[in-house]
Specification:
Distance between the termini: 57 Å
Order of helices and strands: HHHHHHHH
Structural class: mainly alpha
Shape: globular
Helix content: over 70%
Strand content: under 5%
Largest sheet: none
């Protein structure tokens, strides 16, 4: 439905269709959906799936699936999924980073004030 609404330029139908896609996500199907051709074509859908991951990333059911997807990625069969998986890693890095850890911006700012 989302694809059809996009093709026809019916933005009013895209939102409910996107909610329907999001409503069908689960820990068991999330990574398959995120790594699908459909998600690689529609940034709005991919972004919603990344948000789903953000709120469910501590679910242990996702670990074996993520490992499997990374193995497929390393073998070259999931090239279309690279942007989505990079988003997941960035999200994880931001989540794990301690509040007192220096950021790239703070490091650069310090280098400007204190050159070599």
């Amino acid at each position: 439905m989302y694809r059809l609404a996009d093709i026809l330029g019916l933005d009013g139908f895209k939102l409910p269709a996107a909610y329907a896609v999001k409503g069908k996500l689960s820990a068991k199907n999330f990574l398959d959906e995120l790594c699908s051709t459909f998600s690689s074509r529609y940034r709005d859908i991919k972004d919603e799936q990344v948000k789903y991951f953000e709120s469910h990333c501590r679910n242990a059911e996702m670990v074996p699936q993520l490992r499997s997807k990374l193995e497929l990625l390393s073998s070259g069969t999931l090239g279309r999924s690279v942007p989505a998986l990079v988003d997941l890693f960035c999200l994880c890095l931001i989540e794990v980073k301690a509040p007192s850890s220096p950021t790239i911006a703070s490091f650069a700012e310090q280098r400007i004030r204190e050159p070599f």
